[in-house]
Design brief:
113 residues; mainly beta; Immunoglobulin-like; five-stranded antiparallel beta sheet; 8 strands
Length: 113
């Protein structure tokens, strides 16, 4: 299961975005146990308030601090948002997703400090 970033928001200043260095992001998928582990590195994530919002087909990561960061990703498969787990260790955000057959109409919010 690979994750795909959703399209850019039209109101962003694209020239300003190109001038600044984007944060390092790396997604690794490991579904040996029937679950998907997703990793992303966000600068200073341990020092900021991080919220992960997970639905059946997408996930939004919000980091609030000196600089606010928001990333949204869509899933090619349906996941159970209520079983989602997230943690931060050594500046890396790990999100554990559980694929499922049926779409569950719920959004799971995980607050990480």
């Amino acid at each position: 299961m690979a994750l795909k970033p959703l399209g850019r928001r039209p109101w962003r200043d694209r020239e300003a975005e190109e001038d600044r260095k984007p944060p390092l992001s790396e997604w690794l998928v490991d579904d040996d146990e029937g679950i998907v582990r997703v990793y992303t590195s966000i600068p200073s994530v341990e020092e900021m308030q991080t919220t992960v919002l997970v639905g059946s087909n997408s996930m939004t990561i919000q980091v609030v601090g000196e600089k606010n960061i928001q990333r949204r990703y869509s899933f090619p498969e349906t996941v159970n948002p209520l079983k989602t787990q997230a943690s931060i260790q050594d500046g890396v955000l790990e999100v554990v997703l559980h694929p499922c057959e049926e779409e569950i109409q719920a959004i799971h919010q995980i607050e990480l400090d």
